[in-house]
Amino acid sequence: MNILAVTACPAGVAHTYMAKKALEKAGKEKGYKIKVETQGSMGIENELNEKEINKADVVIIAADTKIEKSNRFIDKKIYETSVSSAVKNAAKVIESSIKELA
């Protein structure tokens, strides 16, 4: 399973990075390939490229604000959730995204 995610919160500081870390950890524990882009006060970091997006089975958007460049995912299956859900229970977010979209 190839999973991509974008995390973003209004302030774009702590919770954005906490969600990134939680999703990466949960994905790796399940044996999935996962890459997480963050969007926040530092701009876009770890930006997902076209090749990665094309290979993705699932795209998770864990955001409490509008993400930049959302048109990159127009033809992808997208699972949307809050940043706090990703922080509190990343494994459930990942499993729910797979169950609903893959």
Automatic annotation (TrEMBL):
GO biological process: phosphoenolpyruvate-dependent sugar phosphotransferase system
GO CC terms: plasma membrane
Pfam families linked to this entry: PTS_IIB
InterPro entries: Bacterial_PTS_Sugar_Transport (IPR050864), PTS_EIIB-like_sf (IPR036095), PTS_EIIB_2 (IPR013011), PTS_EIIB_2/3 (IPR003501), PTS_IIB_fruc (IPR003353)
The UniProt record lists the keyword Protein transport: no
Matches recorded under CDD domains: PTS_IIB_fructose
PROSITE patterns per record: PTS_EIIB_TYPE_2
Residue ranges constituting the PTS EIIB type-2 domain according to the UniProt record: 1-99
Molecular functions (GO terms): kinase activity; protein-N(PI)-phosphohistidine-fructose phosphotransferase system transporter activity; protein-phosphocysteine-sugar phosphotransferase activity
Taxonomy, superkingdom: Bacteria
Keywords in alphabetical order: Kinase, Phosphoprotein, Phosphotransferase system, Sugar transport, Transferase, Transport
UniProt-listed NCBIfam families: FRU (TIGR00829)
Protein name: PTS system mannose-specific EIIBCA component
Source species: Virgibacillus dokdonensis
Species classification: Bacteria, Bacillati, Bacillota, Bacilli, Bacillales
